[in-house]
Every structure is written in structure tokens, then in C-alpha cells.
Amino acid sequence: MLTYFLSSFSLKESSIVGSLNLVLSKVRSILRLLWGDPRFLVMSWLARFIAVREWVADRGGYQPPATIDTTVIQATVGARSLATSGQVAKLIQAHGYYVGFTLQNSILQDLLTFAETKPCYANRDPALPFYIKNKDQLEQSLGTQLLVAGYLDTHEACDAYQKLKTDPYLLDVASQYLNHSAIYMRGELAWGFPAPNTPAEKISTARVYHCDINDFKTIKFFFYLTEVGEGEGPHAYIKGTHRHRRFSHQWIGQGCAALDDEALVDIYGRDRVHVVTGPAGLGFAGDPYCLHKGGVPYQQPRLLLQLEFGIYPYRIWYF
Predict the structure, then answer these.
(1) What's the number of domains the chain is made of?
(2) Of 85, 103, 290, 319, which has fewest CB within 10 angstroms of its CB?
(3) Which tens digits make up the pLDDT trace of 160-175?
(4) Do both 80 and 175 map to the same domain?
């Protein structure tokens, strides 16, 4: 009996400590956001709800230009022509994402040259710079396999990236989707490597279904800079979940990342899962509120470029 009592007490104590740690973590997060930008804190609570997101977007009044003269984006192989920015925006509004354009080869090559000749950072740690050609040596010295490596903000110095960041076609797609003049928020150039992932590591590297809330409404453009098949951790969307989602899933917002992938697929429908594979240079766009994930590579590394545009500027964000 005494053993049972002590065991029960120990379990309750452990549960209490766990709950307190969870509360403290939440308080620290709120204080960080409050200190960083109170407007972001308010937005992060309100923008989890679809009705609020669409209300803010509807209050805009963006007027697209009559023509777009220049762009570094082109149609995918086999397509008759590049879809208009308005057509792309409407398809993202309907489905949550759009797949169907590609980088000009000169832009792709410049980005690859940048990635090969500039240091990246192991697991996005500023204290661990290395050149991608030296990855194996770094893993040996660390005694562990790398999950990811990012270039932090150094990609901003790449001319090819700047051309994408200011590309009239991409800006107009973003602005028409947001119904506001799009504001550049941030971007990332990063490698994903084949390596075992724990559940916690999958969450921290966005390799589970999740949503991002960095403004009342945002749009992200992605470009594969290496060929991505099933074995290279392709991106995947659950179609329509930017406009149709259980209220409980809206309430927890980014907490959806803690839900089981298969459970989410069962709820929203396996037929609504779209896995994006394709050659180097393939581009796609999506509302990051739509449930999505990057897969875990198990064959070859994947090099991915992303850019995010929103409605309002903030001094802080979740990536």
C-alpha cells in the first residue's frame, strides 16, 4: 500500500511539474512577443481564425497593373504559357496552393553557385558555419548527422535572390492573393538532409503538418533548387485547409503541429493531400495557413528556397 501511495504521489508530482513547465514556457513566449512587438502578439491570437483572416483581406483594395513587362519566372516544361498572376492568386484562394512555374535557368544556376561557394550553418546554428562540400567532415567532428543547414540571412547578398524578391510577377501574385500591396517579410535558403528524425525534431524542422501565422494573411513562394522526388522530402499540402478547418484546429493555431499527421489526413481526407515533386527550378506558392509540411529526405539532400510576403510589417515573427 505504501509503495502504491508513493508511486501515485510521484506520478502526480511529475504531472504537476510538467504542467508548470508548460505554463512557464507559454508565459515566456507571450512575454517575448509582447517585448518584440505587441501588434504581433495580438495578431497571433486573432489570425488563427479564418473569419478574421478573410475579413482583414477583404478590407484591402489592391489594383493590379495592366501588364507585367519583366519576370525571372517562366512556365513549366510542357505548359502552353505562364499563368497570369490573377489566375494563380485565384487558384491559391480556391486550393490553398499553386504549382506550375519555374525559375529561369540563369537564376537557378546563380543560386546554386551561391549555395556551393558560401558557408551555411549546421542546424541553423550561427556558431557552426561550414561549406556544403565539407558536410561529411563536419558530421564526423560533431559525431552526429545534420538534419538541416541554413544560410541564415546571407542569401540577401545574392543578386539572384534580390531579383526574385522584387520580381513584378511574384509581387503581383502575392498582392492579388492578399488583396493588399504585398510586403516582403523574410526568406530562407536551406538544405534538408537524409537523417533519422525524432518526433520533436520533425516538429522543430517543420516536417509535420502545421500552419504558419506570421500575419493576418501571408503567402509563401517555394523553389526546389535540386531535383525533389519522393526520396528527397517533398513538400505536401492538405488542400483547402486554409478556408475550411475544424474550429478546434483554428483555436490551437500553430499547435496543429503537435497533432498526428495521419489523424489530420484522416480528418480532412487522403484525397486532398497533394505531394509536390519535380525538377530543380520548380516553383510553387501557397498560403502557409493551409496545413502543409516538408517531408523527411531519405535518399538525397534537398535545397529549398522560400520567400514570404504579408500585409503588415512586424519587428518579430515565427518563421
Answers:
(1) 2
(2) 319
(3) 999 999 999 999 999 9
(4) yes
